[in-house]
Request: fold
Amino acid sequence: MPELPEVETVCRGLNEIISPEEHTIKKIVLGDKSLRQEFRRSLIRKAHGQKIIGIHRKAKYLLFELETHYLISHLGMTGSWRIEEKESSHDHVRIFLEDKRVLSYRDPRRFGQFDIIKKADLNDDKRFSHLGPDPVKDEGFSGEMLYRKSRNRNITVKVFIMNQETVVGVGNIYASEALYLAGIKPQKKCSKISLKDYERLAEAIKETLLEAIFCGGSTISDFRQAGGSEGYFQNLFFVYGKDKEECFYCSKMIRSEVIGGRNSFWCNHCQK
DNA sequence: ATTTTCTCCTGCATGC
DNA sequence: TGCATGCAGGAGAAAA
Reply:
């Protein structure tokens, strides 16, 4: 589920719940079942006794900054972090804090990731070393950058912007929404788009993601903010999930098609 | 090298 | 109500 706005929302929520600098990890207990990526279970104990200095977002990953290590968490499709009173069958990581609270990672589909790395190894980690710029944090994100990276590529613009090496944080929902705002058809080849259109697309991506963060993300099925409340950006979708409904601007029928293996939505009249 | 397809898993909506 | 089917926001491996 979670794309950039959802992970950002969870990150902000966790910082409020945890009060960084004030909490120490007593113990981390892992569930029996594996997550999507196998990780180095035996190293997790290195987190024991360490203070949580802060919780950060890197692309769609959450980083719990400890004194010497980072705990890495990726929410996959159905991951969420909550303070839980009682254990549930889908809790795969339980972080026992010194104040007796338990921060639990729940992930029914187990597409998420959890791992620990030394702080110094962060930028060399293969999960992070090939990431493109962050649309809401990095100066390096621009229409000019998209234009340059898209030359001589033979993929659709939607697949192009969902590739985390191009730009991080854009997943299936926000790709459709941003392309709608920019007036670009998702199936257009990325190498055929002008610099001017990429400048509009870069703005559209930024605007969509920032607005979604403001709304606390989008709640579809089981996304929850840290703490459990729902986001409400799903009420503001222009096209995502609106197959056969009317376009907000021109009232023509919104269409859908599978592009790059993912369902995609657009208005054939407003998007060229 | 680049691009497309498959796969990991459970839960939920839909339709018969 | 019960059962079968299809689909879901990610990302990486495998195949083309």
